[in-house]
Design brief:
Helix content is about 75%, strand content about 0%. The chain is mainly α.
Length: about 375
């Protein structure tokens, strides 16, 4: 199977998109439930934990080179182990994607199409993803490299325009529910960065092994700063416990912006800009899931897999009866998937390096 090559900048922004999209929807509400006013501190704490895990996995690249966990798994335990690892990676990606797809559809229903049935919105979204995935990784990464910075600039405007509504007293008490809540909640909320697993799958699509090392660090930094600014803006605008009431925090922030007599509906711009970001996110995720399954079973054509994955994801995303039920299901899925997402890029390379060392000793 031919690997489409992407540049360091493209890979950085692809990963940054995957990591940041969660912050646009329900993530701020989730983190306020665990740490209250100290949510911004928890974000820094979580990012440091994820950074440590990323650095450990990067250290293994010296021994493994430009091999993904799937290629290493086959070397370690032949086909059965490769299938087990491939299914694990695919399920982690599916768990992340299904939640975000449903949350995005809910935002479209709330903001743009309140009278439209959820099923029709999901079908339209699935159709848009089908069109988007045809372009391939290189084209999607190039388009993402153009539009994602625009999304970040737009987010910056939200932070600036809301300046007049900020209340510094909302961040007190600084430690929220206490240091123990931050420490426990941080480990629990590491799932918000579990998309970092995509870095390993994209390794074969880079020209040099130094690219994923740099792009992984840069993407994590961009995602951390994005989440931090969203969290602080949300907290400075709404006091706790109101911060855990709104299901779409960034949309709620955009409704507070008033810039003159003729500019009263900033949330419409919010929906337009983040629709583009979400569609790119979806196209990237469909590529990743299809890529993993195709390489797991050594298939040359990914077209049928792409359409099958889109159909299954859409059906599963429609299962929760409400947005609250969708959030509950996502928490359960994240609790199972997140630990595996961090362990696989470390455990499999270590097993691969150990087996390779043993072979060298025998020879």
């Amino acid at each position: 199977m031919k690997n489409e090559k992407i540049s360091e900048r493209e890979q950085t922004l692809v990963l940054a998109n995957l990591l940041s999209v969660k912050a646009i929807f329900a993530f701020p509400r989730t983190i306020f439930e665990t740490s209250a006013n100290a949510a911004w501190i928890e974000i820094i704490y979580v990012s440091l934990l994820v950074w440590a895990a990323l650095e450990i996995s990067i250290l293994t690249y010296r021994k493994t080179g430009k091999k993904s966990v799937l290629e290493m798994a086959e070397s370690v335990g032949n086909k059965p182990f490769k299938i087990a690892v491939g299914f694990s990676v695919a399920l982690i990606f599916c768990a992340n994607f299904i939640t975000e797809m449903r949350m995005f559809a809910e935002s479209v229903k709330i903001i743009l199409l309140p009278r439209t049935e959820m099923e029709y919105i999901m079908i339209l979204l699935a159709a848009a993803i089908c069109v988007g995935q045809k372009s391939g990784l290189r084209a999607t990464a190039t388009i993402n490299a153009i539009f994602f910075p625009i999304c970040l600039i737009f987010l910056g405007f939200i932070v600036i325009f809301l300046g007049k509504t900020y209340n510094v007293n909302n961040i007190f008490p600084i430690l929220g529910k206490g240091a123990s809540s931050i420490l426990k909640g941080g480990i629990k909320n590491m799932s918000c960065f579990s998309d970092i697993l995509a870095l390993n799958i994209l390794i074969p699509h880079t020209e040099d092994i130094g690219v994923p090392k740099k792009s992984g660090r840069k993407a994590l930094l961009i995602a951390t700063v994005t989440m931090l600014f969203i969290c602080l803006s949300y907290e400075l605008c709404y006091p706790y416990p109101w911060t855990k009431e709104y299901l779409l925090p960034v949309y709620q922030l955009s409704t507070r912006i008033r810039a003159g007599e003729y500019f009263q509906r900033f949330e419409a711009f919010f929906e337009f800009v983040w629709e583009i970001s979400q569609l790119l996110y979806s196209a990237i995720y469909i590529f990743l899931i299809s890529e993993v399954l195709a390489r797991t079973f050594d298939l040359r054509d990914k077209t049928a897999i792409c359409y099958g994955v889109i159909a299954l994801v859409t059906l599963f995303a429609l299962q929760p009866s409400s947005i609250v039920a969708a959030l509950g299901a996502s928490r359960l899925a994240n609790a199972i998937a997140a630990p595996i997402a961090y362990l696989l890029p470390i455990a499999v390379p270590l097993l691969y390096a150990a087996k390779r060392k043993k072979k060298d000793e025998i020879h």
